[in-house]
Every structure is written in C-alpha cells, then in structure tokens.
Predict the structure.
Amino acid sequence: MIARLKSLFRARHHVLVASMIVAMLGCQGQSKFQTALCVGGSHEQYAVSEWILPVGPQEFALDMDGDGKPENRFGGFVQAANTLAFFDFGQSVNAGLRSGKGVVLLDIQQAGPSGCSAVSVNLAMPTAVPPAFDGTDTFQSLLGEPWLTLPVTVSGAEVDTLPTSHKKIPDPKSLDLYLALGTGHLPFRLFEPTIHITKLPDGTLEGQINGTVKSADLDNALTVPVAKEVTQFINSNYDQPFKIGSAVAFLESTTESQNKCLVTPEYCCKSAPKTCVILPSEMRRSGLVTNGLSPDVYGFSADELRIDPNGMPKSGASFGIRFRAKRAIHQQLCPSGTFCRDPRISPTENLKRAWGTASSDVWAVGDAGVAYHFDGLNWMKTITGSGGLSSVTGNSADNIAVLDFTSKNVHLWNGFVWRRLTMDRPGDLRDIYIDPDNHLYGALFEYASGALLRLDGDKWTTVNTTTSGLYQIRTISGDLWIGGYTGLLLQYHAGTWINHGLSQTQLANTSIWGIWGSGNDDVWIVGSAGACRHFTGEHWDTNLLCNGRAEYKSLWGYKKDQIWMGDAGGRIRFLDRRDPNNVWQEWRMDPPAAINGLWGSRRNEVWAVGDNGTILRYQP
C-alpha cells in the first residue's frame, strides 16, 4: 500500500528522485496490474486445471529452431523417469494442481477498437485450500512474478501467439512453470514461449505451451528436487526390493556412492533403503537430468537467445506440454512498482544476508541460526544449529555455505543435510564466498589488520594479509575483490593485487559493506557514511546522487542496466541505468528496518532482507 508519493528535483544534477513511503505488509484485495497489451477490449480469465504430459520426445513437439524437425526433449525426460519407475510424473503434477500448487493463470484479451488481441500468463500463489476448478476460484498471482503478455491471432475458436521471427534476441521473454513432484516441484523457465489455445463450447480451454529451457540451468534447478523425490520413493518402498532394486542399482553405482555407504551406512540405499539418501551429486552423475534434458535446439550466448539451426552449438532443451483450463478470477497481491511482504510467513529474526542461484532457490539468513529458503513458490524455515548467521554463499543448489558469526563456524549444505566446519584459527570472520571454481574464501577482521583466507580441505590457509579488517569478498569477471575497514579495496587481477587507494584518498573513515559488478569496468561499492562509488575500469566516479545519502548496508545489480542499494534506515534506492535522465527511485520501510541484504536473478526480480524479520520482493 503506497501511503505517499513525492518528487524532488535537484537542479544541480538535473535528476528527478522519486521517493515512495511504502507499508510493506502485503496488500490484500484486487490491485491494478499490467496485463493489457491492447487498448480496450474485454478480458477472459482462466486457470490451468490439468497438465497433459508428453509420453515421448515426439509428442507435443514443435520445430523450435527452424531446422524443419519438431522437438520436445521434455518428453524424453518424462519417458525416462516413468521407465525407471521412480514416480508417475503425470499423476504427481496433477495432484499438485488439485492441491493448488503450480497453477498457471491465463488472461485472454479480446480484440478492442485497436483490433489487436493478446494473452497474458503468470503463476498463481499456492492456495490455502484446494481449488474447485468450477469457475468460482479466485487466484492471486505469485508475489514478484511478472506477467508475460504476448500478442496473438484469433481465428474462430483458435488463439495463437505470433511465431518468433528474430535470429538473435538480446533479452528473450520467459515464462516460469512449476510442475509438482511429490512434496516439491520442478521449476522450468521457458524462453520465447509459444502458446496455442482452443476455446471449447463448454467455456473451457485446451492448449499447448512450447519453449526452450537453458541446458546450463537445468542441472542446478532440477537435480535437488529430483534427488529428494527419488529418495522418498525408495524410503517409502523400502520393503519392496523388486520395486526399488533397479533404481538403487542405477543410482548407487559410482565410487562416490561406495564412499557414502562406507562412511554413513544409514544413507546407503543398498543396505538401508528405509533411511537412505540419494545425494544430488549422485543424481547428477546418473545423467537422468542432464541426459534426459540434453541440448537439442538453438543456443544461448550469455543471456542472448540465438534462433539459428546452423549458427552455434546447441545449448537449449526443447519443452512442450498440453493443458486444460477453466474460468477463474485473478487478483494481484502487491501493486506493481513496489516491494511487499509475503503474508504467508512472519519471521521475527534480524536477517543479515540474501543470496540464491535462481528465483526457485533463494536463501535469507540471520539471527538464532535461522535460514529461510524460497523454492519458487513457498518459503521454508530451517535451523542450522548455529548461534547466528551473517553470510550465505554458494555456486549451486547443493553447494551452499553459511557463516555463523557467533562461533565462527561455517555450515555446508549438500541439498539434504548441514555439515559444520570449525574455524581453526583466531580472529573475527565477517564474510565467506564460494567462487565459480568452488574455492571457499573467508574475510578475517581485526581493526588494524585482516586476511583473506581460503578453505583447503577442512583447514583455512592465508591467501593475503591486509592493513585493515575485511568485510566483503566478491568475484567479478574472474577477479577477486575484497573490501573492508577504512575504505580498504583490493582487486586480484592477473596474479597481482591492485590497491584502489580509496583508503588513502576518499574513504579513509568508511567501512565497505557492499561490492557488486557486471565486469571489471563496471564495479560499484557502498558502505558507511553514505559511501557510494562506481568504477569505470579507469577511474572512480564520485559525483553520484547516491553518494552521502545513507548508511548503506547492501548492494545488488543486473548487468549494466540496474543497481539496487539498501540502507540502515530502511530505504531501498534503485537506478535504471538505461534511463538517460538518471532517475533514482526510493522506497522506505514503514516502520523503518535496516535493509541488510539484496539479491536478484534477473531484471526487476529482487529480494530484500533486513532487521525485524524483513523479507520483501519487488513486484514489477
């Protein structure tokens, strides 16, 4: 709920700063949200009531890359899972829908005076009670999830999105689907989706969705939930060896599995199927996910989608699924352009940091050793057994580390259980960071000195000593950046440590709390005393509107497009760097609470955490 909106014009900088005081309590009732692509016209709202899964790679297939061959790699994945008898995927997916989990909303905008039509798609919040799917259900769109609106052509009862005609798409459209699997779900992000809809005489819909998922994302997104579901399947059928025998033999066939059975026999499915665990790493080596959803269509280059069957190696997996949908009422929980709480959770702890690997894998950690995990649909609270957590980092969904600032222990998460490491040297550890090469670093703090540590096995070794204590570690384009007390900022580049000299010049009395960059020619830092600086690769910009305005505690950005900052007074500042007018927006917590952590996975997808149980998500 927006209580007040004001604007300030600063003539010196020719910049308009919008300041919005927002009550972050979760807005109830029907709010205005952006689904309209066309002017005028009517809206017909539906909710998917049934998924129809492909039984093989040729069913529901579509030519996704112009090579003249219809593809549906997802059908092959479903076929493999069903053949191995791990689970009945179709039954599980629709059981989830009937419970109100993973419902997709469709809004068909009929042609108005402008003559155009469109379809908008979004995920629904999981419902408290199972939906009736009889036309009377009211669904709220998932908090923070943007509506995807696509132009369509209408011919009688047939509605079709327009085919993609571009060979290169720098910022492809995407649609998130969550298909229920037992107690969890499988997240799929479909790029440049196409939708076909048939309106039936009884007022319901039948349709098909096709798209491409990034193969590089599938391992991280699917391995952990599939491993958990297979583990549950084996545990619940422990007394039926004929039913689980082939699955166990298939999955526990590696040296890693032999070591698991030796060290932790209770986790061994061959000898203890009732209590065993199939680790995500074992699932990964089995190839069920990576081979079942191996690349078969056009490629991705970073975030650019290239639709060219001959232009580059395949790095996308085709996806096709059919559905039935019935009339429903749509509402939006949070007004567009602001931050809101998820009303389903009520944390009370001071939360210190947010981090994730994807929008379906977000962590928030804080006091009392609590770690909240968001799986794309729901938040869940876990207890690590520590005194209080001040940092969280990782490089995959089953390789997470959190820092206990009370005991200085590090807790490692493998997708199933936490394992504690004990600090083997004195000092105050303030931050930890796992780089892309799987090295775990620690930032050691003492007022007059500090050190960058690296974990080798279960022991810490010193990488570099510093003249001030350290607060932050980040990797940007392969370079390590560390920041700390008295404005200390060092960059490890090409085997040499570079001192950026801020402690001797501009920030001698400043602590650096946040470092973020899209590249070594685009680095931002924030900290105490309102420190806000931007590095261009050649020099540091100091004449920034964000400078000197707050006690900054957190920082996150997206490419060279967006920068987000949180401060100790409960304010979040945002700059859309594509805006030539350099307009900063500001949101204020009511009541105020320090914003200690910011993290996001794509443009306009941002979480903020802070004191007094603050967990917020931005609603585009």
